[in-house]
Amino acid sequence: MALQAQCNSSSSSDPISYEEGSGPLAVIIIPSLLALSTLIVVSQIIWSFITKRSSAQINTGSSSNVNEGEPVPLDTGFGDMRPAQDALDPWEMPAQCTLEGVELLQMGRYGPICMGQLKQDSTSTAVVIKTLKEGSNKPEATEFVDFVLFHVAVSKHENIVKMLYCQTCRMPMYLVLEASVPGNLLHFLWSLREDRCGASDNLQMFSERSVYLVAKQVAAGLDYLHSYHRIIHGDVAARNMLISSGLSVKVSGLDLAFKSRQSRTVDKEQEANVPVKWKAPERMMRLPLTDRSDVWSFGILLYEMITLGRISFFFFFFFFAAKHFSPLPNEKTRKLWSPIVSFIFYITSK
Predict the structure, then answer these.
(1) Domains parsed from the chain with CATH numbers
(2) What DSSP character marks residue 237?
(3) Nearest in space to 189 (alpha carbons), one of 329, 49, 34, 30
(4) Were 210 and a residue from 54, 83, 206, 323 both cysteine, which residue would form a disulfide, CB within 3.0 to 4.6 Å?
């Protein structure tokens, strides 16, 4: 932008001045142009932000973005992924299957994590879809394929979250896991606690025997990981367990288990994502993880269940420092308390 200024040629000794009457005009034009340019810049920034955000998420209004895509170029870019993709051929999404009603739940380590329905023939199954974000580089894509292969290996137990299909030969890459209803065990426990005032049937059904049945299934899943795969879960908690009708429970949240198996270590970022309440003492002292670290967290999971998800942060501090225990919510659960205390003393004395 330029402003036209004229010199008074009547006298060479006179100072430079603007044309008569241009002062008020300049006062109007300059702020207007500044405001317009600012508006244009802000609009471009907002448009760029919206574009990037929309490209990072799956289109929830249509399943076409999940079911269709360009084939992954195996000879260039991701070429060294061919052996892994060949191993995943039996798990590739069949052409007659589609993903519908896809809704974004949250952003995960590799990209969007979504909820949806897997349509196959006349049946529909609730699923969780873990996708690889757009624009991922070769190492990220390779790690995601390894993550899918990890689920192929470990999801052969009835108490481990079940893998259904995957898509690794074309973009977008994703992993399809079977969902559970009501789903997250911690949220289920919270719902029972909220229903306590109304003395609902659900609360009456979740008895001491129910706690035992749930704990038995979680222990079976963890034992399978420890015994058959030499894998440490690393984040055993109610939030990482899936519960369905009939109190059927599956161990999920295997991201940290995959990373620890892949690199034999847990990076600081992932370790920071595990709340201190569930960490075994050796983890807080930055010692190597063992299967007993999972057993410690399993003991806290038991306490989560008998208190319906209400766990005191200072419970274990007083347990060791002052030998005092957090009070239990009611007399009904006190009979479960002695076995848990004995269990924790047994583990810590090993």
Answers:
(1) 64-178 (3.30.200.20), 182-348 (1.10.510.10)
(2) S
(3) 329
(4) 206
Looking at the DSSP assignment, which residues form a beta bridge with residue 114?
104, 129
Which element (helix H / strand E) includes 182?
Answer: strand 182-184
Looking only at the bridges linking them, the beta strands covering 112-120 and 241-244 are: unpaired
Q: pLDDT tens, position by position, for the chain (350 residues)?
A: 443 333 334 444 444 333 444 455 555 666 666 667 677 766 766 766 665 554 444 444 444 455 555 554 433 345 456 667 678 889 999 989 999 999 998 888 899 999 999 998 889 999 999 999 988 898 999 999 999 999 999 999 999 999 999 999 888 899 999 998 888 999 999 988 876 655 555 555 678 888 999 999 999 999 999 999 999 898 999 999 999 988 999 999 998 889 877 665 666 666 667 767 777 777 777 777 788 889 888 988 998 898 888 775 545 554 554 444 444 455 555 555 555 555 554 544 45
Distance CA 114, CA 263 (A): 27
CB 246 within 8 A of CB 285: no
Give the number of other CB atoms < 10 A from CB of residue 215.
Answer: 18
pTM strictly above 0.70:
no
Angle CA 126–84–116, to nearest 5 = 15
The end-to-end CA distance of the chain, in Å, is 79
Which residues sit opposite 113 in a β-bridge? 106, 130
Q: Which of 177, 248, 182, 163 is nearest to 214 (CA)?
A: 248
How many CB atoms sit inside 10 A of residue 230's CB?
9
By annotation, the residues acting in catalysis are: 235
Relative orientation angle of helices 291-306 and 208-229, to the nearest 10 degrees:
170
For residues 316 and 201, give the distance between their C-alpha atoms in angstroms, rounded to a whole number: 32
Which residue intervals of the chain are DSSP H helices? 22-55, 64-67, 82-87, 138-154, 185-195, 201-205, 208-229, 255-263, 268-272, 281-284, 291-306, 315-321, 337-348
* CA 287 – CA 293 distance, rounded (Å): 10
